[in-house]
Amino acid sequence: MPSTQSLQNQRPRRSVLYMPGSNARALEKGRTLACDALIMDLEDAVAPDAKEQARAEIVSALAAGGYGQRECIVRVNGLDTPWGYEDIAAAATSGADAILLPKVEGPTTIHQVERIMEAQGAPAHQSIWCMMETPLGILNAQDIGSASPRVGGLVMGTSDLAKDLRAAHTRERVPMQASLSHCLLVARAYGLAIVDGVHLDLDDDEGFAYSCEQGRDMGFDGKTLIHPKTIAKANEIFAPSTDEVAWSQKIIEAFEAAQSEGKGVVVVDGKLIENLHVEQARRLVHLADMIGKMETA
Questions:
Q1: Residue 6: what pLDDT?
Q2: Regions of the chain where pLDDT drops below 50
Q3: Which CATH architecture has domain 7-238?
Q4: What is the C-alpha separation between 23 and 56, in angstroms, rounded?
Q5: By C-alpha distance, which of 126, 122, 26, 117 is closest to 67?
Q6: Angle between the N-to-C axes of helices 205-218 and 177-189, in degrees from 0 to 180, rounded to the nearest 10
């Protein structure tokens, strides 16, 4: 059933950095990076002969802890591979916040993974995230987003999606706009997190900033990243500005004052303020507070 994500369940996801599970030094460095979340990858970033070692590295890193308030997500291999089942079983009790499934195309996969997690004793708060990166997955996004209470987020896999669509991966991403918007609708309808796909050209700083701004304006919570050098810019673009926070606080204060005085109409600086504006303002102020706590932790 569609729901609205409560403020308590929301957290910053401005910068979500992929890191190869086979690279112990990268997993160590992740403890010091300013990203909001880490995707510890067992899939695309790991060669077949390194899969089992990578799984052990990730489990060891999570057991050691030290990641602070960063959200830790393990991307596993699919159940149709030799490593998928063991990846999920290990991740279920690793302490990871979420398990990210590749190339999800329908609810059946989610139900299979959920059964494995529960059999392994996964904690109730551990969620399932889904890579949205195939045409069939996009078409079935609503069924995926509503498949289980454990589904917590969608991650756009725009590189694979562009390949499958036989589309050009242009700066404006026009060929992918329908897919991006459809998944955003699903995420907001079902109270899920949603993060945008990666920008592959690490030498294109201006293009990266444009991509972040586009994703922010569309409504994404943040962006998936492939290099630490892009964290600061993603954090900057997806964070509420000082002016936005000040305006939001002003709206909230005026609304609460009007309520206490029994007034039915609230006007701030000549603008009519309705409940929807107050809800947006509270979300933004909460996000800014969470970011502040992360940065001072």
A1: 56
A2: 1-4, 8
A3: Alpha-Beta Barrel (3.20)
A4: 11
A5: 26
A6: 50
